[in-house]
Amino acid sequence: MTSSDRSQAVDEKRSYEVRTYGCQMNVHDSERLSGLLEDAGYVRAPEGSDGDADVVVFNTCAVRENADNKLYGNLGRLAPMKTKRPGMQIAVGGCLAQKDRDTIVKKAPWVDVVFGTHNIGKLPVLLERARIQEEAQVEIAESLEAFPSTLPTRRESAYAAWVSISVGCNNTCTFCIVPALRGKEEDRRPGDILAEVEALVAEGVSEITLLGQNVNAYGSDLGDREAFSKLLRACGQIEGLERVRFTSPHPRDFTDDVIAAMAETPNVMPQLHMPLQSGSDPILKAMRRSYRQERFLGIIEKVRAAIPHAAISTDIIVGFPGETEEDFQQTMHVVREARFANAFTFQYSKRPGTPAADMDGQIPKEVVQDRYMRLVALQEEISWEENKKQVGRTLEVMVAEGEGRKDGATHRLSGRAPDNRLVHFTKPEQEVRPGDVVTVDITYAAPHHLLAEGPTPTVRRTRAGDAWEKRNAAPAQPAGVMLGIPTLGVPAALPAVASGCSVPASS
């Protein structure tokens, strides 16, 4: 921080809470918001504070039809708490703030700060300005002020991290409002990205996810159509970086050089999230998706030929305006042919500000629901069949924190296989920390997870596990008394957030 920025920092240790809605972009932004606040002298409120903090920040999503209703409902619940708590401040940022601007303060005049997707770095200054001037501060930048990854951070995981390679999107999908809110695509310089990755690895991070609205369009404003595949290969040269993932690509820009880089770079994981949205060519055209069914299935075939064990996931929207039963059956056909490991399925809902919201042929809710249930049932069947193929395999699993909700009762631990499948395994006698890697034999498969019920043959302690242990170490007290281990947040699930404006859904 500069000296002028420090003058804006709070004098006392005020607590904060950040509530995140939507996609991985928002998750990444929220880590930066937390880092900015802590850099300014705030302390994180305990888990479960539920608004009982000096500063509550809403990082919003705008792509759901009822996104604003959800926000104003939450703001309404905080209004009486703010009345009872002198000095409490409420801030609203993210896509809905970028979209609604002054409307938020008009509907909820007790909000202190409104900021957009392009100027998250201003939050501490705006909070201080609102406190001193005793009036709401609304500041919405029209263009990006700083890449999220260049700002201070409070990462939720000691061993896994997001790395933003681009922001914005140049596509014009008729169901998506993200380009209007996050702007045209802007790419970071490769050297800046790799420097950040190297710094993260030096801190103990062993898995990174390259993040963008359309990652394989990376290089479009750098003048290099193969920039993304080169970036993947460069990540493969970073010592200590064990796993590289990325989300989310677009079928239009997914080229053979990227497939080759995935297949030939050992630390790039055999996992791909490839958004389908619809299997019907007429619907894809109405969505302004610049590929058709044949092109999509061709990509899947090439990936499987180069990476036989790749797990491929997707996004699908059911009930887009004008969708007929025949259109829907084309989607079901692609699902059967592609055999996705899993799919994030959405019932179409009007997204204010998108062309699709005003299209003719809006589908009745009961028809959309029926198609949705049939699609989910088919994908559930396929997911289970694909997972059963993993039984008998020996997999390396990176131990995760908080992935297994029943681990305490079942005496198991959980983690992710290289292809990102969730694996629950028997807790070994020796200590295993999040970030460590175990080798397990898969004995059972369910639609959404795998089990390794026998002994754990190998436990490999890692620098990532050391980082987790250091982060969780209780500080020593003068009298030798140790504090309890704090509870940390769960690392973001990959490859997608299944609600709100997921990056895959906007690709």
Describe the structure.
It is a single chain. This protein has 507 residues and is α/β, with parallel strands linked by helices. The protein contains 16 helices and 21 strands. It has helices spanning 3-8, 24-39, 67-84, 95-100, 102-107, 123-133, 178-182, 190-202, 227-235, 256-264, 281-286, 293-306, 325-338, 365-388, 407-410, 463-472, and strands at 15-20, 43-44, 55-60, 89-94, 113-115, 137-139, 160-164, 166-167, 186-187, 207-211, 243-247, 271-273, 311-318, 342-347, 394-399, 412-416, 422-426, 437-441, 444-445, 450-452, 458-460. Strands 19-20-17-16-15-18-21 form a 7-stranded mixed β-sheet. Strands 2-1-3-4-5-6 form a 6-stranded parallel β-sheet, with helices on both faces.
Write a concise synopsis of the structure shown.
Helices cover 34% and strands 18% of the residues. By secondary structure, it is of the alpha/beta class.
Which features would summarize this protein structure in a list?
507 residues, alpha/beta, seven-stranded mixed β-sheet, six-stranded parallel β-sheet, 16 helices, 21 strands, 34% helix
| Category from helices, strands and their pairing | alpha/beta
The number of helical runs is 16
Shape: globular
Determine the N-to-C terminus distance.
35 Å
Share in helix: 25-40%
Q: Radius of gyration, rounded?
A: 23 Å
Model regions low in confidence, pLDDT < 50 over at least 5 residues: 1-11, 476-507
**In this structure, how is the largest beta sheet organized?**
7 strands, mixed
Strand composition percent: 15-25%
Number of strands: 21
